[in-house]
Write a structure and sequence with these properties.
9-stranded antiparallel β-sheet, about 5% helix, mainly beta
């Protein structure tokens, strides 16, 4: 599908790579805004020629080009690209953004584009009530509880102590389609505004802070997108207008709560309920947190059970307990180190250091840190060095972006590489498809030569393919020889040769 420029301006940036936005185009405009077009299948010829030239100069499919004002002008409604499914896209579509050109902050694109009138209010799925203090209770238990809309609307919930609230909601346009985030959330206690958030823009540098705004554990465990109405001290998102202290419900007291949720068109949905202060003296207290308390504004280091953990200051959004345990296994060789709770969000990398086993020292360059999950072991990398305390001990350190379970493994097997084409005679429009995969550390880099000359091949990691067409590569008719060299993240290399003809 053709992609048209939203407004007149100029090409200011082009980025091409296998991940993220895949092929992405950035157009700057005289009004101080930049429009972004992601997951593109291709660019208009005048843009594509610049990309191709840079790719061949660098001998790399991955390129990023910054262009001065006026070098490549575009007119409003000019075809600048074709939509596609490149990068981290879950299906063919256009990813569109409007940014402030100076700050690069993403802005609400509905401020700039016309859509059909929207009279559909946001959808509220439910409300969650959090027992924020050890002695707080919700529904007679010292635990958090989620209520679906029909179980909370107009109802009275028994609770006691300091509690927090969160709302599970989204918005749809009048014509349906994919859900959109609501623009504004307001929470009232006894008709007094105690919380308000409004999302119009925020810096990309604070992207990870969204994990503190939402209930991260609910997202991980139940795929619910609950927006909390209380703010952690380390959450720096500039979206909060009013943030009062969490609600305190005393025994015998009744607090009348009301959420008002608004979309961009101004449609409002509401849910009202009451909190009655009732304490269950027979309730079991909250389990005592395991591990050590880590203050969110302090650096914390711990060397125990065979793993050294370094957590920089402001990694957490609030104080957290971190427990470290070890699970020994007969196979594979290394134990699993369980570091903290995977459902606790972090905003900075945590450094894990482990000793390389003696038997792996001869192949230390093939050792890596891996994250253990239900789906298997995922590569996290790491660098090997001599331990500061002993020159005879090798250790490997890796920076990881989530808490959880980790271990060491080795990758000594080169990637799998094979040509997927059934026939060796190709038309100009046929796709040369090379299957590439690696069971452990993943594909790191690749090179494809045809008749000894480097050629641009796209890495489609979602389908484990390197691909290009003879027409795009501008190959002549006749016989050709292809050589593909693929390397994984542990330095293992596989090379294949293939002869074919262009007809």
């Amino acid at each position: 599908v053709e992609v048209h420029a939203a407004e007149r301006g100029w090409v200011s940036r082009v980025k091409v790579g296998p991940y993220g936005y895949g092929r992405a185009l950035y157009l700057s405009h005289p009004d101080g805004h930049t429009t972004v077009y992601g997951h593109l299948n291709g660019f208009a010829p005048k843009i594509d020629s610049l990309v191709r030239r840079r790719q061949y100069e660098l001998k790399s499919y991955d390129v990023e080009i910054f262009l001065p004002k006026g070098q490549v002008p575009v007119m409003r409604d000019e075809v600048v690209a074709l939509s596609g499914n490149t990068g981290g896209s879950g299906g063919p579509h256009l990813h569109f953004e409007v940014r402030d050109s100076h700050t690069e902050e993403p802005l609400n694109p509905l401020r700039f584009i016309k859509i059909a009138p929207d009279v559909t209010p946001p959808t509220i799925y439910g409300v969650k009530i959090y027992a924020l203090e050890p002695d707080a209770q919700v529904a007679g238990a010292s635990a958090d509880r989620y209520y679906q809309l029909n179980a909370v609307s107009g109802r009275t919930i028994e609770c006691c102590g300091t509690v927090g609230l969160g709302i599970d909601c989204t918005d749809f346009f009048e014509r349906g389609g994919r859900p959109c985030g609501v623009v504004e959330i307001a929470l009232f206690a006894d008709d007094a505004l105690v919380y308000k958030s409004r999302v119009d823009h925020f810096p990309f540098s604070l992207n990870r802070h969204v994990n503190s705004h939402i209930d991260f554990a609910e997202k991980i465990l139940h795929n619910r997108f609950i927006q909390r109405s209380f703010v952690s001290p380390g959450n720096k998102l500039p979206i909060y207008g009013v943030v009062s202290t969490p609600t305190c419900v005393k025994s015998g007291e009744v607090r009348h709560m009301r959420y008002e949720v608004k979309d961009f068109a101004g449609n409002v949905s509401k849910v009202s309920f009451s909190l009655r202060g009732v304490r269950n003296d027979g309730a079991k207290p909250k389990p005592r947190p395991q591990g050590e308390l880590v203050r969110w504004q302090r650096t914390w280091a711990k060397d125990t059970l065979g793993v050294d953990v370094l957590i920089p200051r402001e990694t957490f959004y609030d104080d957290q307990f971190v427990a470290i345990s070890r699970t020994d296994r007969a196979k594979p060789l290394m134990p699993v180190f369980n570091v903290g709770d995977r459902c606790v969000p972090i905003q900075k990398p945590v450094t894990l250091t482990m000793a390389v086993p003696e038997v792996w020292k001869p192949i230390a360059d093939k050792v890596y840190v891996g994250r253990v999950s239900a789906s298997g072991l995922s590569y996290c990398g790491g660098s090997v060095r001599t331990d500061f305390g002993s020159s005879s001990v090798l250790v490997i350190s890796a920076k990881v972006m989530s808490l959880g379970s980790y271990t060491l493994d080795v990758d000594t097997v080169p990637p799998s590489v094979r040509v997927r084409n059934k026939y060796k005679s190709l038309r100009m429009s046929d796709v040369i498809s090379i299957g590439v995969s690696d069971a452990k550390s993943g594909i790191s880099k690749y090179s494809v030569l045809i008749d000894g000359q480097w050629q641009v091949f796209e890495y489609d990691y979602k389908n484990n393919r390197l691909k290009a067409t003879p027409g795009y590569l501008r190959l002549s008719k006749g016989r050709h020889q292809l050589r593909a060299e693929v390397e994984d993240s542990c330095g293992n290399v596989r090379t294949i040769d293939w002869n074919f003809s262009v007809i």
